[in-house]
Design goal:
By secondary structure, the chain is α+β, with helices and mostly antiparallel strands. Among the domains are: about 80 residues, Nuclear Transport Factor 2, Chain: A, CATH 3.10.450; about 40 residues, no CATH class; about 60 residues, no CATH class. The protein is built from seven helices and eleven strands. Strands 1-2-3-4 form a four-stranded antiparallel β-sheet, covered by helices on one side. A three-stranded antiparallel β-sheet has the order 7-8-9. About 10% of the residues are buried.
């Protein structure tokens, strides 16, 4: 019945003493405090509220529901219950155990059931399935179904997308400090082990024992300082003859001068070149 249609009841409203005595009988006089109010629940049904004085239930209140028969002035007690008030400390809403489990909570010996309607899974292709009916009933693109190979269910498109989002945003994704400072990406690393299926377009497995991602799924856009193509700097080697040019200038000789022709002038007694190119005398 709508609250606007409930008629007030003066007999029940005046029966606060009856309701208090019921609360005292249930909890003891030391636990029942001042009256907090009265509210009609239905025709000839109302609830008186009293403060709870227990230090363990601060903010709680005793709710005593009373009633009377039609055309009767006798009030009877329906129920006495302890309820939380507006400022009471209460337990959080109940969450089923399966929904409370978080990644990393599973320990050796634990068994975690998977719901039959888990959206991360779809029915696998078995020997009894018809390829055309499976493809037509699947929300995936034609040919996108996966052969179960003995598995009743396989990853759905949503399951793969959720996994890809976790791995991309995880410890071995492209946005990590390690990846941002790496000289090259895993896609060009010789230690990268490709994976099959649609995940192979975005992820691989690291096989470098010196990498922090060894044996882990990594994004192809991840990277670290142990990339296979990083080599130590080789010592520099001269590619041509080195000369000490201190005290003189190098002169370029033409081919004929290099062959010993006398176009450059004659040698003087002390071997010095004169201003015109000849070797002069001291």
């Amino acid at each position: 019945m709508n609250a606007t249609q409930i008629r007030p009841d003066a007999v029940l409203a005046a029966a606060a003493d009856v309701a208090r005595q019921a609360a005292v009988d249930a909890a003891g006089a030391a636990m029942v405090g001042d009256a907090l109010g009265f509210a009609m629940e239905d025709d000839r049904v109302g609830t008186h509220s009293f403060a709870c004085l227990s230090p363990a239930y601060v903010g709680w209140q005793w709710a005593v529901t009373i009633t009377r028969a039609p055309r009767s002035k006798t009030v009877t007690v329906d129920d006495v219950v302890l309820l939380p008030g507006a400022g009471a400390l209460v337990a959080p809403p109940w969450v089923p155990w399966a929904e409370r489990v978080l990644p990393g909570d599973l320990s050796p010996g634990d068994v975690l059931e998977t719901a039959p309607d888990d959206v991360r899974l779809v029915a696998g292709l078995t020997g009894e399935d018809d390829l055309e009916s499976v493809a037509s009933a699947s929300p995936l693109q034609p040919g996108a179904w996966e052969v179960g190979l003995g598995r009743v269910r396989v990853l759905s498109a949503r399951g793969r997308d959720e996994a890809a989002d976790r791995w991309t945003g995880g410890e071995f994704g492209p946005a990590t400090p390690m990846a941002r400072q790496a000289p090259r990406e895993c896609s060009t690393c010789g230690f990268m082990l490709p994976v099959g299926g649609p995940m192979g377009q975005q992820f691989a497995i690291c096989a470098n024992v010196l990498s922090p991602a060894d044996g882990r799924v990594v994004a192809l856009t991840f990277g670290c300082g142990a990339h296979s193509e990083i080599e130590a700097d080789a010592p520099s080697r001269p590619t041509s003859a080195a000369y000490d040019e201190t005290g003189f200038d190098l002169l370029e000789l033409d081919a004929e001068a290099a062959d010993g022709s006398d176009d450059t002038g004659d040698l003087g007694e002390n071997g010095d070149l004169s201003e015109n190119g000849d070797l002069g005398h001291s």
